[in-house]
Amino acid sequence: MKFRLVRLAAAAVAAGLALTVTSCSLEDAGSGDTVKVVIGYQSKTINTVTAGTLLKAKGFLEQRLNRLSESGGPKYQVEWQDYDTGAPITAQMVAEKIDIGSMGDYPLLINGSRTSANEKARTELVSITGYNPKGALNMVVVSPNSPVRSIDELAGQKISASVGSAGHGTLVQALTKAGIDAETGVEVLNQQPQVGASALESGQVAALSQFVAWPGLLVFQDKAKLLFDGAELNVPTFHGVVARRDYANQHPEVLNAFLQAQLDATDFLNKQPLEAAGVVADNSGLAPEVVYLYNGPGGTSFDTTLKPNLISTLKNDVTYLKSIGDFAEFDIDQFADPAALQKAFAERGIDYGAELAKNTNPSLVTGADPVSGKAADNPALAGEIWFAGQDATQPASDPTSLLKAIKQARAQGKTVRAAYVPDAELGTRWFADKALWVRDGETYLPFTTAAAAQRYLAAHPSGVTVTYDQAVNEVRS
């Protein structure tokens, strides 16, 4: 990687943060009888929707603050600021312009580091929005006609990534795992996600490494194909919420209302995922099918608790951040403070410790598969089909049964809006028609990447690759 460019980019970010602090005048949190709270979010980073897009659209925070006002408290004013990545949210928090923000794990670390020098800007990690235990929320994609089939074939190529983001961190880890020197083996162009998407489409870069929802979006639009699934690293990746300590100390009732509202949004998403996906799609501009890929059952684990393995992941990420630029050490254990969230749980009569100990996805595919007659209760196999014109999905007990259901639907003239299956190796939820399929006897297995399919075939000589349409046409009903 031509890391001189990366280091310069990191230095530029630091300089930009400093400029923001010196050039912006500080605003009071409230004036007169009105208390203002400014929230930074990323509408298209759909792993943060329970603290951003969905939360904002449903009005859960405003409703809770209004109740405080009606009980004799001051009036509250909520200002929402939408950004593409976590970096500008951090810049505004350093400048004391944003009070609560949400972002991915690497940006969270940068946030804690950058704000630690100023007591009024200093932040704390107060909750998690969503996580994937293996890291499947970050992926590397290439153009649809690219001959590249594995990460090691990117040696010497130009790759787009947002330096300092979780997507970039995944790229560095993937390259290292493939034996490619992360500093000299490739050239990384530091680009915002949408800029990188355009660069990939125009052929300016060989690959794009980004966080949700960009990989799924580009693949869904037939503008890319998946090359590397972050789940191969088997390292958790997550998004969370940070709050300025100074603001939280002055207005603890606002932070409490925010966390209660986030729990409202989390419950709504986990209990009504399809409806929630529609709300997020309407308010983010993303296709509902893409939102549901990540926000649907078996996708992201939307769980607010600060799990020990996620905090450990933060600590392990420090090495990466130090490699790309200056990173001020700070106490991560103090940064991750569950006290406010524990209070919110207690007020709802929920045992925080019991929720903290849970490691399964709160939202999984359930129900009876009408084709196989079996329960769709195995997360490693269960998928679902979203038929056009229907406001509910049809569960499938396993990928083979899902193909049978689609074959029957085609014969009946039904249109499949989207179908979702878990990768046979890593469990990543993916689009059935974008998966790489292998037939082994009468069983059909979907994989997110060609490399994953090849690993299976190497261990199972009886398997053969088939296209999605071949699989649907030849599966025995």
TrEMBL record:
It comes from the Bacteria. PROSITE patterns: PROKAR_LIPOPROTEIN (PS51257). InterPro entries: SsuA/THI5. Keywords: Signal. Residues 1-23 form the signal peptide. Residues 124-276 form the SsuA/THI5-like domain. Gene3D superfamilies: Periplasmic binding protein-like II. It holds the Pfam family NMT1. PANTHER family: ABC TRANSPORTER SUBSTRATE-BINDING PROTEIN, ALIPHATIC SULFONATES-BINDING PROTEIN-RELATED. This is ABC transporter substrate-binding protein. It comes from Nocardia acididurans. The lineage of its organism: Bacteria, Bacillati, Actinomycetota, Actinomycetes, Mycobacteriales.
